[in-house]
Amino acid sequence: MKKSKKSAARVGRLVTEHGVVNTPAFLPVGTQGAVKAISPRELLEVGSEIILSNTYHLYLRPGPELIAQAGGLHKFISWDKPILTDSGGFQVYSLAHNRKVTEEGVEFASHIDGTKHFFTPEKVVEVQQAFGSDILMPLDECVPYPCDRKLAEAAVRRTTKWAEISKQEAGSSKQKAALFGIIQGSTYQDLRKRSTEEIVALDFPGYAIGGLSVGEPQEIMFEMLEHIYNVIPEEAPRHLMGVGFPQDILGAIKYGMDLFDCVIPTRLARHGSFMTLKGKVSIRLARFEKDFSPIDPECDCYACRNFSKAYIRHLFWAREILAMQLLTIHNLRFYMRMLEKVRQEILAE
Questions:
Q1: Chosen domain end from 234, 262, 290
Q2: Residue 279: its H or E element
């Protein structure tokens, strides 16, 4: 690990059974086992070293049994690099109208057919082990923003309880997967610190910070990170879950965050926007109608090396799928190049 002399930023290497991830790193989100509008081959070309998939969605369809029969998630989706699977805990937040939280776990009504399913900490670990994930996340409770203190405190208590059970379940397996502990606490400094101390005391190989990027202002997110980052063991990787705007990532790196995941680059691409350090820009704008320059002259991605903004704009208005594919390639390569530059700058200090 190489630490910055200017902040808590650092460069590291996360070693897994399926390869090494250079950090800080961004994880493209492949919710259902596929990153939208881009193939695994293209993911490699843009520089992706790890992806994230969703336990809740893959559990419902096609199911852990089928994935296990296929030889695990890596073989099923033809991706031989690391995979991190989340716990389904975010769906506790995002599908609040379809679930019921109890002390034992979470009952979901499937968004597909309405059938009832009960996620316990043990079951969530078992499902991810059936996937053969490299990094597993325990069941946790993610609360909304703003959040009543009593609700946030109850979520911290459950998250710690479920983390203990999850670690026991994962410890009984012979798999080499790493189970990360998840820190909650909403935007209450004392609850964030309490959650961090409780989860760190359980001695996980890595830690994830959940419950941020759910609508709170950027300065509050950074305030929470500043309050807890030095409580997390220095040698452990830190994953800031669901954070994906460039300025949020660059700011969080200064607080020692190593891993980031978000649907932002792929979702914006499907809606016709490309990423810049200043934010998103819509390819649909009239000023690009006769703009025969690439999206970014300095970008080395397939889209920027071969196509103009005028052409991609034409494709988008013609509703051609290729427009979404090219914008997705550019947006993900933008993130990879951004973090490559960060790593180089820290190493050069």
A1: 262
A2: strand 279-282
Specify the pTM.
0.97
> Catalytic annotation on 261?
yes
Does 80 participate in catalysis according to the annotation?
Answer: no
pLDDT in tens, 122-163: 999 999 999 999 999 999 999 999 999 999 999 999 999 999
Do 103 and 33 have their domain in common?
yes
**Strands of 99-101's sheet in order across:** 99-101, 106-109, 116-119
Same-domain status, 243 and 297: no
Q: Which residue range is the domain that position 285 belongs to?
A: 268-349
Same domain for 252 and 295? no
How many Cβ atoms are within 10 Å of 44's Cβ, its own excluded?
Answer: 13
Q: Which of 140, 248, 258, 261 is catalytic?
A: 261
297 and 201 in one domain? Answer: no
Identify the CATH number of the domain in which residue 51 sits.
3.20.20.105
pLDDT tens digits, one per residue of 248-284: 999 999 999 999 999 999 999 999 999 998 889 999 9
Instruction: Report whether 334 contacts 299 (CB < 8 A).
Output: yes
**Catalytic pick among 86, 248, 258, 296:** 86
